[in-house]
Amino acid sequence: MSVLILNLSFFVTFNMENQKHLFNLKEDIHYLNGAYMSPNLKAVEQAGIEGIIRKTDPTSIKEKDFFEPAEEVKSLFGKLINASPKQIALIPSASYGLMNAIKNVPIKKGQHAITVNEEFPSDHLTLRKFCQENDAELKVIKPPKTIIGRTQEWTQKILESINEDTAVVVMSSIHWMEGLKFDLKAIGEKCRSTNTYFIVDGTQSVGALPIDVEAFKIDALICASYKWLLGPYSSGLAYYSERFNDGEPIEYSWMTRKDGHDFSKLTTYPEEFEDGAMRYNVGEFSNFIALPMIKSALKQILSWKTENIQSYCFELLRPLRDYLEEKKIEKDDNKMVSAHLYGLFIPENVNLSKLMEDVKAHNIHLSARGKSIRISPHVYNDAKDVNALIEVLNKHL
């Protein structure tokens, strides 16, 4: 069978054009691995360099710089997820943000917690520790064995498992291996009706897929920045709803207290925290290198709009979906699978190791996760990247 080759002219039908010129990706690689780590935007790279240089002259860093840039980043992130900046905290990692949330979830004797099968390790490990400490059952909801209708059936199983005895549900916004789009709105509404805390790890989609913490009734949304937020590693953002406003944070930084911005009052050692989610900020959250990078990335994402990123990636992968359909390789309905993280189950008769070796030999970068390969494009990808992947797949399928 001949390989489908996409005409580059198809991009003229798009609202958004290819944005590779804003990145420094090498021309000879096909980087379809944004779910592993994003490349830096040129503007983000420059912001980081300027941040490094800035400390060469410490007199350029004023007292207000410990707080104002952080507030700017919180405001931008709030616009992205429809949240008040007051309810957003700066975190060093997703696991840190998750622990801040889970340690403040109330649980009664006999209650249980819920997550999904093959959830990202940080989510599973955090929830498992919570259950161990509270002598509670951890219920792992497994997917159906079928591929067609998989997302809807899996969501239904999650919904049916949530009841008044469910203390908390912890899950990713989409499945990190398969890219399945769980119905977060329905799950959030069910959690709210049973007084269950709903904690979502948004690392796998926030920045590339629209999300609304108010509409989805999410109690805590945790996001590392180095994937779809296009930011640096060891940095992230978290939303904590008002249910957490009186909670106990992981650490006790002077910067999170009332009047922390007033350096003349530091040795009054105030007990009271600033309002909202301020208490959940990591110590030294005013990172003079990372914050400008995150700010630059968020501004670009808001300019693009996440719905446009999804549309771009969806159209970009159209030839791949057509090819897989011709090969009769099953995939759930297109509406149920994210466009920026597309998990493809490999038939059992295909040697996955050899396939990945061939992919690598052709300078194609993507990830193997479980029994599937994870194809994760962004607006820096074009038709050549997709065609290169199809050509390699065609030798193995």
Descriptive overview:
The chain folds into two domains: 8-35 and 305-396, Aspartate Aminotransferase, domain 1 (Alpha-Beta Complex), CATH 3.90.1150.10; 52-303, Aspartate Aminotransferase, domain 2 (3-Layer(aba) Sandwich). It is 33% helix and 13% strand. The protein has helices at residues 42-54, 68-81, 94-102, 121-133, 150-161, 184-193, 290-304, 306-316, 318-326, 352-361, 383-396, and strands at residues 30-31, 88-91, 112-116, 137-141, 166-172, 197-201, 220-224, 236-240, 342-345, 364-365, 367-369, 372-375. It has a seven-stranded mixed beta sheet with strand order 2-8-7-6-5-3-4, with helices on both faces. Helix 1 (42-54) packs antiparallel against helix 7 (290-304) and helix 2 (68-81) runs parallel beside helix 7 (290-304).
SS-derived structural category: alpha/beta
Mean pLDDT: 93
Q: What's the CATH class of the largest domain, please? A: Alpha Beta
Q: Could you tell me how far the N terminus lies from the C terminus, measured between alpha carbons in angstroms?
A: 11 Å
Question: Helix and strand string, N-terminal first?
Answer: EHHEHEHEHEHEEEHHHEHEEEH
Q: Given the C-alpha coordinates, what overall shape results?
A: globular
Sheet with most strands: strand arrangement: 2-8-7-6-5-3-4
CATH topology title of the largest domain: Aspartate Aminotransferase, domain 2
